[in-house]
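#dry-run=false #mode=assembly
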Amino acid sequence: MPQTIGEKILAAHAGKDRVHPDELIEVRVDFALGNDITAPLAIQAFRKAGATRVFDPARIALIPDHFVPNKDIPSAVQAKEVREFAQEQHLVHYYEVGRMGIEHALLPELGLVLPGDVVIGADSHTCTYGALGAFATGVGSTDLAAAMITGKVWFKVPHSVKFVYRGKPRPWVGGKDLILYTIGKIGVDGARYRAMEFTGEVIGSLPMADRFSMCNMAIEAGGKAGIIAPDALTEEYVRGRARREYRIVRADPDARYEAVYDWDISDLDPVVALPHSPANVRMVSELPDISIHQAVIGSCTNGRLEDLRLAARVLRGRKVAPGVRCIIIPATQRIYLDALNEGLLEVFIQAEAAVSTPTCGPCLGGYMGILAPGERCVATTNRNFVGRMGHPQSEVYLSNPAVAAASAVAGRIVHPDAL
Amino acid sequence: MKLKGYAWKFGDDVDTDAIIPARYLNTTDPEILAAHCMEDADPEFPAKVRKGDILVAGKNFGCGSSREHAPIAVKASGVGCVIAHSFARIFYRNAFNMGLLILECPEAAESIVTGDEIEVDPDRGVIVNHTQNKTYHAQPIPPFMQDLVRAGGLMPYVKEQAQKQSGA
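#status=ok
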């Protein structure tokens, strides 16, 4: 029976020739991760289970990135708990402030997650790694603890849904716009429990950064995984980074999908998801006048070098509007350094934007840009739920980096060409 | 075992930021998390919810983050059971792993309103609404999940497996 990418990867890790949707299987995990918010609960569960040693200290990453550099005393205590566990277990992949980055940007950058892998992470945006042709999904802390002990996890094999993108994207339209458009079409539970496979000529021409953005937000449609078949670009990205063997897996041509969506996106303009749902999507050109108080460019969705280049293209020679705070957060130290060497940081500082060390900070309303009641922010992040970036009466508008940068300059949400 | 309590009704797509806002994730203390459970959706909920009450919601309950703090907060707030039209995937797993009883029942999710007196028989998947004199039948819990629940959640289950292995 022909199979999808997700089915093939899961079968290989379950020691089976094939798996079927809805089948319950136990699979071997290639890599598992947690952060400073989810790891403390996983460590508590690990101890409660009576475990003393992780299954493999080289296949677990603990990355403090959400509330670090420590935002307050309780966060410092949690970060310390994670650090001490990493030391006790001799974890190879613990990344301290100064070396760390936002987990979902850092792990692919370091070649720790690879094509054909099964990856679980105690963070919902673990699905990001599907951009490499891996089966990667978010789990809770207890599932992470079980995987840290046994190296295994149980899954129900998801049904697969295929998304085909055709046509020629307009200028300023990227992966973020495609995934917001998709969520807008199918809704925040449109792919609940499903593996989303993104294909078509448009995906083939997308840079890796945009592919990561797309798979990153599969969870925002309820997806268990977002997957893009590896191609020459994937192999180019992985080559030189990979620290172990990997396997290129592609879907069989006649694989069965529960549904297939086929869209020509040639007419799509940059989009924005309005409060308070990532599915509340409109084209920027159709929006009424929406003034903003803050712009955030960064996060596991859009904090990569390509994203910063887009922001710099818009901000070069311009100034952030009076009354607007523009906060730019490179996702990893490597990206930060590359942005420095390319002169992007100077562009940002000359534009009077604030540039921060890597952190998830404002995306989840942790710190580094919290909103007051009535404040509005355009952000390249992934969620705009009530209270997501601060006060429950604040608002978040999700966009691509160019729209966020242009809006910071205009003081209201605008198309980059409107400046 | 039967549960009896009063219903708290919420809508579709109740996300994990609504269940427990991220600003409180600098702790794992169930009591502190419970003190802020659902507060952005209904500021009165943490103070007024009583032990054994039933949380009822629409589609896709628990969408968003993987934070296990969400089922911990709901359980520690005293809620005996969550009934929804459907649950987001990660929340569904986390709830079982934490020993929070959840039932999928579109009919009950539609019909029940805040304040209804509800009785739940989780073994049979039967939900009785004493206020409206109605009975609903929930989706039965898959056998594999029942095994996990019987073991007391995922950790006791893993502990059993580990003990079997070391004893072998």
